[in-house]
Amino acid sequence: MTAARLAGPPPRAWQADPYADALRAGRGPLFLRRGDGWLLPLEVERWCADADPADGTVLARCTGPVLDVGCGPGRLVAALARLGHPALGVDVTPAAVERTVGAGGSALCRSVFDPLPREGGWGTVLLIDGNIGIGGDPARLLRRAARLAAPGGSLLVEVAGADVDERVEVHVDDGRGGHGAPFWWSRLGADALRTAAQDTGWAPYTAWRSAGRHFVHLRRRPRARDGALRASGRNTLRNPDAQGAGPR
Predict the structure, then answer these.
(1) DSSP assignment of 78-90, as one string?
(2) What is residue 60's three-state secondary structure?
(3) I need a surface site. Which of 29, 41, 158, 186 has the fewest CB within 10 A?
(4) Residue 202 to residues 43, 136, 143, 198, 225, Cα–Cα distance (Å)
């Protein structure tokens, strides 16, 4: 695949009727379908519900103003608002933004690659529910997130539980014959994310698991020290939250 083909996800792909209809209804079924017929179920019901205990482990790590990239129906933005935490969601789907605002959160109908408020000043950037896949080019997305975050800020990423590193063309499918336009998407496990983060301004910090979901916490490197940090070997991934885990 070429860089041009991975320039970014066409917004119309996520404005297609199956996805927007599922968000309005608050339920699936809904899938990402690969060209070979493989299906990735999308957890619409969980996305449209209140934040659950696994989400709570993400919220507890949020510091400063929070930007939720690909916020969907906005459960995390709404939860942060209830906690009195400044937060903004961005999503390319009008139905997602409407639902976020209706839940008490703030959101913009915009791509992460568009100009955004507070660029370079977000204390925490979120890529939850597989949103590291946006655009099918993790390095580009990570570099963009680094430009959005404040120096020393955090990036909280939900990754695949499996050791996977793939970039594939998919479309949204409702399992009943309805589908959206094709677009590029990525799936990364923790090791693949650590590799992708090496030259994008992020240093892997911790990883944890909750309710069968897998997360990685990255720290924004101060720009002047990027090379020094890499040379010192301090970009190791620690997992103090997992039982029996230690530096690795």
Answers:
(1) HHHHHTT--EEEE
(2) coil
(3) 41
(4) 28, 19, 8, 7, 11
